[in-house]
Batch of 2 targets.
Target 1
Amino acid sequence: MLRDIYNRPLKDLRISVTDRCNFRCTYCMPFDEYEWIDKKEILTFEEITRLASLFVQFGVDKIRLTGGEPLLRRDLEKLISKLSSLSGLKDLCLTTNGSLLAEKVSVLKSAGLRRINISLDTLNPEKFARIRRRSDLAKVLEGLFAAKLYGLHPIKINAVIERGVNDDDIIDLVEFSRKNGFALRFIEYMDVGNSNTWTSEKLVSKREILERVHARFPLREVGREMGSAPSVDYEFTDGGGELGVIASVTEPFCSTCTRARLTADGKLVTCLFSATGHDLKKLLRNGATDEEIIEVISPIWEKRTDRYSHERLEAMNSGRGYRANDHRKIEMISLGG
Ligand code: SAM
């Protein structure tokens, strides 16, 4: 198993299958146009599967497909089918905005997908349109319930909370998730990429989110799954299910981060807040052998020193302050969430 400078093993791989998205969420990719990755630079399913199988050899046992919007990638089920048969892989998951899920869930399930994360930040249709700026809430809800109908489990809802935008939706989202058996994950608003207008004032901390929920639905802490998951999990004391909070800003978890990311054009990235990646596609397309690719990947992980969120918090707590756009970061659309 590969370990980095801080002894963190490589266990998870997040694969962005496209940088395209049919939404323009204000907190993620607010602009109409980006410098899109040229289609011929996007990894093929064969290339993704080959790299994934090498990562599994390194000890990766969990893969998440993301984007951009992964369901925009044509025939995604073919990739799911290839990946789900990798021996050694214990968990294959997909993060989606849900808008195309109702029409695709059946083939995704047949291809081997067992669980799913769906992004949903509000149940208010007008607010949804303001945040997402394309598509509509009804399509996402249709996708969410289709996933339930087809027996995907767990179905996690990812809700990014932004002050003054949807912090008044926290309790509605909790009630909705409890009622329908979804596992809700609140995510602190992060300064991913350089396109959103993140400031610390827009952040609603884990502590504040939990205080609001606990006042209405008392909670008990369960902890982090496997000790290294991004989310700290809680259960409702009345048996009404569970809830998690991902507090990358106020309670960074870099010290237990076991995640690598593969961009849609084949760059290996070792932190969500990285400025650059390492080009693996060039190796693939220049005919490198598996051994040669492994020789490139190993030192990248072994020399990994990333602890961006800890450094951010240190800066926020120091007199220096922290200005998100002083740091160039790869956009979330290429990197995958
Ligand atoms: N298109 C898919 C979706 O909407 O779920 C997958 C890609 S999206 C980049 C992955 C996750 O990143 C989503 O759950 C989204 O809410 C989260 N995300 C995007 N921008 C974020 C931000 N600024 N802060 C926190 N989470 C963010």
Target 2
Amino acid sequence: MCGIVGYAGGRDAQPILIDCLRRLEYRGYDSSGIAVVGDGLHVHKSKGEISALEETMPTMHGHVGIAHTRWATQGKPTTENAHPFADCSSKLAVVHNGIISNFMDLKDALVAEGHVFSSETDTEVFAHLVESELKGDLMEAVRAALKRIEGTYAFAVVSADGAEVVAARDESPLVIGIGDGENFLASDVTALLKYTDRMVYMMDGEVVRLTKDSVTILDREGKKVERQPQKISWNLEDAEKGGYPHFMLKEIFEQPNAIHESLLGRVETLDPEPFFQTGAFTSVKIVACGTSYHAGLAGKYIIEELAKVPTTVQISSEYRYSSVSRENPLIVLVTQSGETLDTIAAAREARKRGHKTVAIANVMGSAITREVDHVIYTRAGPEIGVAATKTFTTQIVAMYLLAMDLATQSRVMGAQARRSMVGQLRNLPRAVQDVLNKADVVEALAKKYSGVKDMYFIGRNINYPMALEGALKTKEISYIHGEGFPAGELKHGPLALISKESPVVAIAIKDHTYEKMLGNISEVTARGSPVIAIGYEGDTELGKYADEVLTVREVPPIFSPVPVIVTLQLWSYYLARERGCPVDKPRNIAKTVTVE
Ligand code: AGP
């Protein structure tokens, strides 16, 4: 996720672009850059937050320009990899939000034609593509270049010779702000509200030419699009959260797209290159903290089922001080921030012990990425809410990809099974969207139970880690005491805690443990405790056992953690909101824990 802005008007573009860009910093903050068209094209970029750009940039005069704040997905967060990118002639500048999945092939072809590249990014390819298509009309050159691109994008392009910004979108957001004698462009309305409240939302496949006095939109076929501006009544603070009351809710709702981005370019072919060329492993050890540890626990079930490789999971701070065993497992370190000290220390320890290491991380260039042999990025975009949501579901997606890799390398998974996995993975965003569409049902139920002091979560098999994660989310943001158990363990102790005052959330999807789960639900209801069950749509049995039923779309059981946990994220969110808790910043907890 990155933020882009554009301006064409009568005022100096530089201060307006920087002001707009600041409001998009939540979309990415590892580097930024600006291009202004005046007497020629002026480009300036800097590593770090937008303040670093402001401190180093010279005054640039000109009435047209573009700017970008980056959240790296391809290429490290360095000044060289910051946007905008110029073509060989330095007459074009391009900013981009999205991922070009066929960029390697395009880059090879462009290099063969003599183009010279200065970065590791996918975006730079587009600057050179436009250059090679440019025959006078910038908009036509952009349209021609887009035909060669696969992936997702919001692009904005300026040329040293023109008083226009040309932009395009496909699956990445882009909105046009209509002013008087000036027009704007941004990744979301937040950036533009100070300047105008009249917005035109661009649709997938559309290209726009923006000048001081005109806005021309063409659809994918090149037909002119007439669309009236909408008047936006949000205040600035509302807009930063995209109209959601909290970042956590916004991030929960971003999950279909986050999962889609995580998969992009990785499951396109049936026999892709594995992520790492280390050969087959006889065992895997996953090391992580908190929510990432729960993703690791889910990973154990996924890897053992798909790749048949024995997998253990350990808390980072425990691994670090554990004794050395004779095993030589692949060590997988899971950390969304990439800065958790316990996990970084565990990575160092693993390397000291001579193990191969892989990190599953969300923040490109974060500390963990320098400590391991290989990184799988989750591409969820920046997560502002302290409670991990979209980074968790994309960690689980990374586990499917890793398991498929291990299975392919050890020849445990054939082409047919892989094809079916890929199909199911591609359906995941829809299963999540279904849950989000029914958020009001979860909200109503959470309101009913928001007054309790204790709440228990039970599940079996791959949904046991989801019970743990549901409990962690609940205690973390609603301050209700939440505990998760494997349902089969209830009778070995926790049943003593069950009472009328402590509802139990039971995950009971139709897998090989379903009948046992029904038995566990009965054990609980027999003691007077209300049960809120999460099951598959169309399950008519569950309602006979549980007091309340929340449903998710039926998916093969191995994929069920994803829609199940989204339901539990909503559940904990609405509990916290009803109790008036500071959802995005729970007491005593930091987003990134850099102490031991
Ligand atoms: C999750 O909601 C928590 N904020 C916390 O458990 C978190 O997952 C943990 O601190 C690990 O963070 P990491 O993924 O950045 O390493």
